[in-house]
């Protein structure tokens, strides 16, 4: 779309992007689009390390999540890899929840987005 300035989302719509967005965790409202397969247990997990499936690790920039969460670079990646991290002991993983919610992650104790 970057190369074709005349092709806008108003003209082509979002429908063709929903399957890709589903892979990273975003599910649009059910009155707009229904996925053909339900999310797997891992994809719907509230455990962040499980939720970041191998495919999501390829598609989602953890560096961008760090930056958007205003945290030090590399902290989320170290957390996902189970490496000890002093920063998270101080600020907590909850710092990342607002940004990850935009991608469809539902933190522990919160209701499902399409419930």
Overall description:
It is built from 8 helices and no strands. 40% of the residues lie in helices and 0% in strands. It has one domain (9-102). The mean pLDDT is 79. The termini are far apart. The longest helix has 7 residues, at 18-24.
List keywords for this structure.
115 residues; mainly alpha
What's the short version?
The chain has one domain.
Low-confidence runs (pLDDT<50, min 5 residues)? none
Helix content: 40-55%
Overall strand count:
0
Major sheet attributes: none
The best one-word shape is elongated
Kindly report how far apart the N and C termini lie. Answer: 33 Å
> What is the radius of gyration computed over CA atoms, rounded to a whole number of angstroms?
16 Å
Helix tally equals 8
Mean pLDDT: 79
**Domain count:** 1
Helix/sheet category = mainly alpha
Strand % is under 5%
Walk me through the topology.
Elements: H1 9-12, H2 18-24, H3 48-51, H4 54-59, H5 62-68, H6 75-80, H7 86-91, H8 97-102
């Amino acid at each position: 779309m970057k190369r074709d300035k005349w092709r806008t989302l108003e003209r082509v719509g979002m429908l063709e992007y929903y399957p890709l967005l589903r892979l990273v965790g975003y599910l649009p409202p059910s009155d707009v689009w229904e996925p053909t397969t339900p999310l797997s247990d891992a994809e719907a997990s509230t455990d962040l390390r499980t939720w970041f499936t191998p495919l999501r690790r390829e598609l989602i920039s953890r560096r961008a999540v760090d930056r958007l969460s205003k945290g030090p670079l590399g902290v989320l990646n170290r957390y996902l890899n189970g490496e000890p991290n002093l920063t998270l002991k101080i600020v907590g993983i909850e710092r990342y929840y607002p940004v990850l919610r935009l991608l469809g992650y539902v933190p522990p104790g919160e209701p499902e987005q399409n419930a």
